[in-house]
Amino acid sequence: MNFLLKLILSALAVLILAKILPGVEVDNYVSALIVAAVLAVLNSIVKPLLVILTLPATILTLGLFLLVINAAIILLADYFIAGFNVGGWLWALIFSILLSIFQSILHSILKKDKN
């Protein structure tokens, strides 16, 4: 149940960011839910592999290369989902940063409601 609620909150964050950012488009609510699900799968499977493969670059940049990996994950989701469009690397980077901020705020609110 907790995973489903986090998925819905992530879809809400995707919808809000698509309205705010001109370089990101989501067709409808179902597409936002699919984007949230695909990002969850990509973050759990592909991202750890990319982090391991790019560990020297991540160490040299003091972790800032992880932002590039997050943008690559967003662009990969854009490739797989027809109702989700990102305008390029810069928009993917901005979207990934803001999505992380939104998700952390929404999930912290969720944790406060549990207590």
Please, could you describe this protein's structure?
It contains 5 helices and 2 strands; from the N terminus they run H-E-H-H-H-E-H. Helices cover 80% and strands 5% of the residues. By secondary structure, it is mostly helical. It has helices spanning 2-20, 29-53, 55-60, 65-80, 89-114; strands at 24-26, 84-86. The chain is globular and about 40 Å long. Helix 1 packs across helix 2. The two termini are 16 Å apart. The protein has a two-stranded antiparallel ribbon with strand order 1-2. It comes from Aquimarina muelleri. Pfam families: Phage_holin_4_2 (PF04020).
Question: What secondary-structure arrangement, pairings included, does this model have?
Answer:
Blueprint: H1 2-20, E1 24-26, H2 29-53, H3 55-60, H4 65-80, E2 84-86, H5 89-114
Antiparallel strand pairs: 1-2
What's the quick description here?
With 115 residues, the chain is mainly alpha-helical.
Order of secondary-structure elements? HEHHHEH
Which percent band covers the strand fraction?
A: 5-15%
Radius of gyration: 14 Å
Number of helices, where a helix is a run of at least 4 consecutive DSSP H or I residues: 5
Helix amount: over 70%
Q: Can you list the strand order of the major beta sheet?
A: 1-2
Tally of separate domains = 1
The helix/strand class is mainly alpha
Distance from N terminus to C terminus (CA atoms, Å) equals 16 Å
The backbone outline, from C-alpha atoms, is globular
